[in-house]
């Protein structure tokens, strides 16, 4: 009976993991492993890989959680749950559907939304929104690998009408529903839904056209 | 909510992709998505945008001590998992011995495809690499990790239409070990598994089709 691998796919991502030509037995330091290999290694329970994985992603996971819950202690709890979930479910990660970073931030976002709904209904303040909106539209590129696609997305957001950009940030990053956005912005529910729909539609059209 | 039409789905798709659609509407929209490939593609495109939006949030330094607390937690969970695996392995081995009625024969059979014992691993884990070649062209990479547990990972891109391949490792002393099988799709595939041997003794990794043909070989340099 064949052994079952800890990590197998029916197809590989669009490109193979980066190749370290000429490295041979000298080896590649663990902290320089590609993201998807680091995640695969995490599933084996290797402690050194766990350290490298946490160090690489802890800031983005924590930031994602904090944007939703608005409380550093609560965000830490969410971030811890996120890494534990990644450790338990590394096998289901599918690199064809996105990067490890996107996968992790989506887990963190969903956990944070679930958490915040039981704590306080609208954790975001107008100041929070303004700061995040500015950072989203103009922030520096932290992740060099995705810098080009990230820059295109930032440009597309910056080109949106401000009310649509605000609605998208409130929904995508702070996790507010259309009803909560309507209350936050003091607008009718239908207007909030229209802003979300129009904003997403324009982003898609802009990104598709480039 | 009743079944939604494609037009109604388009009205809901953005909120669904953003993960903010309330329960009843969400259930109806998801039911429609499962039936309609066009709407599914539309939703996938929006979901990609939604996921990418979240990655634009600037990184934030977690509280002091977060990394240590988190790693302690993960390591504790890992140790519990390993204890459970060892217990399960012990129970399984004992059951096999009892079932066969011949303890030595059973254990010998159980381990015949593996080296007698796990070799000691390097105290400083490294990642060894080797390039797969097939029909004299590069066909992917194999990576062997020397930590604990040691493991191997491979990504291959071949022109073979084989769907199932076995992976066979050969050590520098000529020992052959088949470590498992995995699937290719249109010649592509990637796979990894823990291995019960010292990665520093690896000579080659071979991918073998079900008809016995070697479709790719990777040689670890010495």
From TrEMBL, chain A:
Record's keyword terms, sorted = Sigma factor, Transcription, Transcription regulation
Coiled-coil positions: none
Question: The organism sits in which domain of life?
Answer: Bacteria
Start and end of every RNA polymerase sigma factor 70 region 4 type domain? Answer: 152-203
**Matches recorded under InterPro entries:** RNA_pol_sigma-70-like, RNA_pol_sigma-70_dom, RNA_pol_sigma70_r2, RNA_pol_sigma70_r4_t2, RNA_pol_sigma_r2, RNA_pol_sigma_r3/r4-like, WH-like_DNA-bd_sf
Q: What GO biological process terms does the UniProt entry carry, in alphabetical order? A: DNA-templated transcription initiation
- Name the Gene Ontology molecular function terms of this record: DNA binding; sigma factor activity
Q: Which residues form the RNA polymerase sigma-70 region domain?
A: 53-118
List, alphabetically, the Gene3D superfamilies matched. 1.10.1740.10, Winged helix-like DNA-binding domain superfamily/Winged helix DNA-binding domain (1.10.10.10)
Per the similarity annotation, which family is this? Answer: Belongs to the sigma-70 factor family. ECF subfamily.
The name this protein carries in UniProt is: RNA polymerase subunit sigma-24
Q: Specify the species.
A: Gandjariella thermophila
Automatic annotation (TrEMBL), chain B:
* Top-level taxonomic group: Bacteria
Q: Which UniProt keywords apply?
A: Membrane, Transcription, Transcription regulation, Transmembrane, Transmembrane helix
The family database entries (InterPro entries) matched by this protein are listed as: Anti_sigma_zinc_sf
Instruction: List all membrane-crossing ranges.
Output: 87-107
Q: What name has this protein been given in UniProt?
A: Zinc-finger domain-containing protein
Recall the taxonomic lineage recorded for the source organism.
Bacteria, Bacillati, Actinomycetota, Actinomycetes, Pseudonocardiales
């Amino acid at each position: 009976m064949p052994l079952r691998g800890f990590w197998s796919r029916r197809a590989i991502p669009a490109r193979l993991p980066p190749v370290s030509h000429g490295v041979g037995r000298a080896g590649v330091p663990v902290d320089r492993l590609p993201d998807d290999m680091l995640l695969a290694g995490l599933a084996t329970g290797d402690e050194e890989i766990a350290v490298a994985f946490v160090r690489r992603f802890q800031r983005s996971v924590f930031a994602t959680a904090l944007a939703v819950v608005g409380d550093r202690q609560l965000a830490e709890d969410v971030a811890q749950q996120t890494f534990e979930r990644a450790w338990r479910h590394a096998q289901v990660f599918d690199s064809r559907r996105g990067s490890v970073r996107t996968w992790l931030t989506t887990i963190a976002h969903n956990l944070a939304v679930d958490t915040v709904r039981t704590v306080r209904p609208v954790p975001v303040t107008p100041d929070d929104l303004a700061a995040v909106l500015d950072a989203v539209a103009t922030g520096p590129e932290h992740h060099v690998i995705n810098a080009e696609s990230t820059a295109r997305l930032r440009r597309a957001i910056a080109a949106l009408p401000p009310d649509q950009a605000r609605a998208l940030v409130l929904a995508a990053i702070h996790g507010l529903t259309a009803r909560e956005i309507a209350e936050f912005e003091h607008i009718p529910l239908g207007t909030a839904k229209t802003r979300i729909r129009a904003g997403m539609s324009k982003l898609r059209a802009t990104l598709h056209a480039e | 909510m009743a079944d939604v039409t494609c037009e109604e789905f388009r009205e809901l798709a953005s909120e669904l992709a953003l993960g903010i659609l309330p329960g009843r509407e969400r259930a109806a929209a998801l039911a429609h998505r499962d039936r309609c490939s066009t709407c599914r593609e539309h939703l996938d495109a929006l979901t990609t945008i939604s996921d990418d939006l979240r990655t634009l949030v600037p990184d934030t330094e977690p509280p002091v001590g977060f990394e240590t607390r988190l790693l302690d937690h993960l390591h504790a969970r890992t140790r519990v998992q390993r204890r459970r695996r060892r217990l399960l392995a012990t129970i399984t081995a004992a059951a096999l011995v009892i079932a066969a009625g011949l303890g030595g024969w059973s254990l010998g059979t159980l381990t015949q495809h593996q080296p007698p014992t796990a070799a000691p691993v390097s105290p400083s884990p490294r990642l060894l690499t080797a390039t797969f070649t097939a029909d004299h062209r590069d066909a992917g990479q194999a990576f062997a990790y020397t930590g604990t547990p040691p493991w191997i990972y491979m990504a291959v891109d071949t022109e073979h239409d084989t769907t199932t391949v076995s992976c066979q490792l050969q050590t520098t002393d000529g020992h052959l070990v088949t470590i498992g099988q995995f699937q290719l799709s249109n010649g592509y595939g990637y796979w990894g598994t823990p291995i019960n041997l010292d990665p520093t003794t690896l000579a080659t990794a071979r991918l073998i089709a079900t008809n016995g043909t070697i479709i790719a070989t990777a040689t670890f340099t010495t």
